[in-house]
Design brief:
The protein is an all-beta fold. 0% of the residues lie in helices and 45% in strands. The protein contains no helices and eleven strands. A four-stranded antiparallel β-sheet has the order 6-7-8-11, with no helix packed on it. A three-stranded antiparallel β-sheet has the order 1-2-3, with no helix packed on it. This is Cyanovirin-N domain-containing protein.
Length: 108
């Protein structure tokens, strides 16, 4: 992430510097872009991810761009923690965070 700090919660807020180096508050709903597939986080390009419904202990690390969570499998059991590298998928566009990719790399 370029000059941003923030948190991953129900609001997915961030504060990013614009081109004049002024701090701007921005929001990106990661739930629209990330899905829980068999207990692992995946990028969902259809805009219907909804991972927060079946995942817990969600965290987002700045500046590494790593989203981590523990998610349920279809049978209800918790899967091992999974992470998703969003660094190449979220961009600071003049102080606003934007989703800019169609795929993200899964990390385990």
């Amino acid at each position: 992430m370029l000059a941003c700090q923030g948190r991953c919660d129900r609001h997915d807020d961030a504060a990013c510097n614009d081109m004049q180096n002024h701090l701007q508050h921005s929001r990106l709903n990661l739930n629209d872009h990330i899905a829980n597939i068999n207990g692992a986080l995946y990028c969902n390009v259809n805009g219907d991810g909804n991972f927060k419904q079946t995942c817990g202990r969600v965290s987002f690390e700045f500046p590494s761009g790593r989203l981590s969570a523990v998610c349920r499998r279809p049978g209800g059991a918790w899967a091992p923690p999974s992470s998703l590298d969003l660094n190449s998928c979220i961009a600071n566009i003049n102080g606003g965070i934007r989703w800019t990719c169609s795929a993200a790399r899964v990390l385990f």
